[in-house]
Amino acid sequence: MATFIKLFVTLSIISLLACSTNAQLINNFYATTCPSLQTIVRNTMISAIKTEARIGASILRLFFHDCFVNGCDGSILLDDTATFTGEKSAGPNINSARGFEVIDTIKTNVEASCNATVSCADILALAARDGIFLLGGPTWMVPLGRRDARTASQSAANSQIPGPSSDLATLTTMFRNKGLTLNDLTVLSGAHTIGQTECQFFRNRIYNETNIDTNFATLRKSNCPSSGGDTNLAPLDSVTPTTFDNNYYNDLIANKGLLHSDQALFNGVGSQVSLVRTYSRNTVAFKRDFAAAMIKLSRISPLTGTNGEIRKNCRLVN
Ligand code: HEM
Ligand SMILES: *[C@@H]1O[C@H](CO)[C@@H](O)[C@H](O)[C@H]1NC(C)=O
Ligand SMILES: *[C@@H]1O[C@H](CO)[C@@H](O)[C@H](O)[C@H]1NC(C)=O
Q1: Deepest of 23, 108, 111, 125, by most Cβ within 10 A of its Cβ?
Q2: What stretches in the chain show pLDDT beneath 50?
Q3: What pLDDT score does 21 carry?
Q4: Could you tell me if 287 and 248 are in contact, meaning their C-beta atoms sit under 8 angstroms apart?
């Protein structure tokens, strides 16, 4: 009888654990179920970046936009269909979110070795980490065990992802709503040390704002007319847009932040001003703090345990 009760208690605990909604992400989640995962993601990212260095930046941005909308749950990867409106067509993503084909390729390669085991949300987290590393940035262990959403929210994507004309108060509030501090905002904005932006997002800044270096504004106007050319590209980092270094912060100090939201970090008072100065002087500190903040970003509201699903195709709910 005692054995029977013990068995019953043990089974109950096991099922509680399995159904637990707040299971923790862990670094070695796939150690036995998909030991080749990290190698597969790394190798696919190496060849993608060889083809186009910018793709590392684009995938990092996808990850940020995934995590800011109902957590890091792969929701941004879902395609719109006749009966489903997802996040790809939301304002912050439409005609600018890119890198989906690389995530598809990684998923295909992962499925070939570990069928129906690894979530698209985890693949995106690993790919973002690898892109940063391959462009010269830091590396870290990615906590894993996220599962994929069966839903997406276009309205949350429209209202919860900050826009390029946001001021510091708005940025601070939007990050705080995700459990991220002003320090996290300051260091994560350093992601703009890589990648490109469209003219339509910085036009007002280069034509109308005064806290901008004059020569820099003139240079950017050469490929961003006061009307037209909306999708013409310019680098977010004025010197090294395919190297994950600390030059973004040098740009801010020189009034060469390209987006209004970038320069907002170095315009006025607050602890972020001295942090910008610190990162401009100290690459090691920037990379260390960036890695820690990425882990924090990656832990926003994941689906775990038996919630969500492991998608077969990152673009479609099973
Ligand atoms: C702080 C608020 C932020 C705002 C307002 C913002 C806004 C933007 C905008 C408007 C673009 C250009 C998109 C385009 O023209 O297609 C961009 C690009 C980018 N953003 Fe942000 N961003 C923010 C924070 C972040 C964070 C936290 C990350 C990652 C941790 C990030 C990573 C990137 C990257 C890597 C690119 C370049 C993408 C590419 O070249 O395809 N951003 N961002
Ligand atoms: C993958 O696993 C699913 C069940 O989880 C099975 O139906 C499918 O045939 C498998 N595919 C491959 C290629 O092994
Ligand atoms: C400059 O600001 C004015 C007033 O807000 C606006 O109408 C105009 O479109 C802006 N110019 C550019 C090039 O964005």
Answers
A1: 125
A2: 1-21
A3: 44
A4: no
Residue 208 alpha carbon, nearest atom of ligand 3? 1
Q: How confident is the model over 42-90, as pLDDT tens digits? A: 999 999 999 999 999 999 999 999 999 999 999 999 999 999 999 999 9
* Best CA proximity match to 85, nearest among 148, 154, 158, 156: 154
Are the C-beta atoms of residues 291 and 54 closer than 8 Å to each other? no
Question: Is any atom of ligand 3 closer than 6 Å to the C-beta of 205?
Answer: no
- The residue contributing the CA closest to ligand 1 atom 14 is 197
pTM above 0.90, yes or no: yes
Residue 131 near ligand 1, beta carbon < 6 Å:
no
Which residues carry out catalysis?
Answer: 65
Q: How far apart are CA 219 and CA 213, in angstroms?
A: 10
Contact partners, residue 143, CB within 8 Å, separation at least 6: 24, 25, 26, 27, 29, 295, 298, 299
**Best of 198, 205, 207 for a ligand 3 pocket test (most atoms within 8 Å of beta carbon):** 207
Q: How much is the pLDDT for 156? A: 98
CA distance 9 to 184: 43
Q: Where are the beta strands (DSSP E) in the chain?
A: 196-198, 233-235
Q: Which residues 6+ apart lie within 8 Å of 309 measured at CB?
A: 147, 148, 150, 317, 318
What distance in Å separates the CA atoms of residue 16 and residue 26, rounded to the nearest whole number? 18
Rounded Cα distance between 71 and 64, Å, is 10
Ordered by where they begin, the domains of the chain are 25-161 (1.10.520.10), 168-296 (1.10.420.10)
